[in-house]
């Protein structure tokens, strides 16, 4: 059984990681150990590079916190231009995989508040009335009428980032 360290305690992210690992390596193939670690970037990262840096930093900090694990996984959500997205970074002792998620264009009324310094999660909680929306369906769930959620979009990105770990051509 793989010991997987999630560099977050966010339930939507943990569910996505567990679902993706079970899909790739088989049901019950891993145990998720969630740790809260610092990203080294602002609460609301802007741009692809700052967001990817946050995910890379979280993996490094998770590795430091739980060095005995088989995999370390970070999902960092950010804002790029007028959209929200995330970077997934996965490392093992011998391999690394990174993938960017799908992007969701955000309405200007939401972007104005985020650009003014508020994080997307609290803005969306106020807009939607859903407490701690970032730990649930997220803006993606609201604006896609539940057709997609944070978890479903993160799941796809985790699957993509896992590609180097089970395809020999990457090695």
TrEMBL record:
Q: Which domain of life is it from?
A: Bacteria
Assigned keywords, A-Z: Hydrolase, Magnesium, Manganese, Metal-binding, Nucleotide metabolism, Nucleotide-binding
According to UniProt, the reaction catalysed is: XTP + H2O = XDP + phosphate + H(+); ITP + H2O = IDP + phosphate + H(+)
Q: What is its EC number?
A: 3.6.1.73
User: Is Metal-binding tagged as a keyword?
Assistant: yes
Pinpoint the Non-canonical purine NTP phosphatase/PRRC1 domain residues.
7-165
Query: What does the record say about how the cofactor binds?
Result: Binds 1 divalent metal cation per subunit; can use either Mg(2+) or Mn(2+).
Residues engaged in binding Mg(2+): 38, 68
Q: For this UniProt entry, which residues form the secretion signal?
A: none
| Cofactor or coenzyme needed | Mn(2+); Mg(2+)
Record: residues binding substrate: 8-13, 68-69
**GO terms for MF:** hydrolase activity
What does the similarity note say?
A: Belongs to the YjjX NTPase family.
Q: PANTHER family under this entry?
A: NON-CANONICAL PURINE NTP PHOSPHATASE_PRRC1 DOMAIN-CONTAINING PROTEIN, PTHR34699
HAMAP family documented for this protein: Non_canon_purine_NTPase_YjjX
Q: What is the purpose of this protein? A: Phosphatase that hydrolyzes non-canonical purine nucleotides such as XTP and ITP to their respective diphosphate derivatives. Probably excludes non-canonical purines from DNA/RNA precursor pool, thus preventing their incorporation into DNA/RNA and avoiding chromosomal lesions.
Quote the subunit structure annotation: Homodimer.
Protein name per the record: Inosine/xanthosine triphosphatase
């Amino acid at each position: 059984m793989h010991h997987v360290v999630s560099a977050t305690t966010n339930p939507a992210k943990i569910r996505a990681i567990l679902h993706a690992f079970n899909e790739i390596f088989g049901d019950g193939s891993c145990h998720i150990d969630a740790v809260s670690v610092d990203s080294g970037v602002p609460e609301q990262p802007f741009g692809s590079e700052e967001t990817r840096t946050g995910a890379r930093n979280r993996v490094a900090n998770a590795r430091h916190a739980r060095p005995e694990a088989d995999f370390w996984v970070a999902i960092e959500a950010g804002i790029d231009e007028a959209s929200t997205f995330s970077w997934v970074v996965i490392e093992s002792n011998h391999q690394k995989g990174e993938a960017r998620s799908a992007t969701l264009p955000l309405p200007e009324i939401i972007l104005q508040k985020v650009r003014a310094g508020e994080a997307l999660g609290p803005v969306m909680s106020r807009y939607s009335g859903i407490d701690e929306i970032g730990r649930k369906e997220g803006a993606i769930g609201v604006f896609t009428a539940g057709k997609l959620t944070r978890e479903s979009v993160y799941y796809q990105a985790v699957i993509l980032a896992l590609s180097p770990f089970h395809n020999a051509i990457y090695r």
